Amino acid sequence: MITPRLRVAAYAVCLRDEHLLLARWVSPDAARRHWTLPGGGVEHAEDPFDAVVREVAEETGYEAQVEQLLGVNSRTRNVDSYDGEVVDLHMLAVFYRARIVGGELRPETDGTTDLARWIPMAQVSTLERSVVVDIGLGLHGSASPTGHAEPIQMTELLRH
Question: What dotted CATH number matches 3-157?
Answer without folding.
Answer: 3.90.79.10
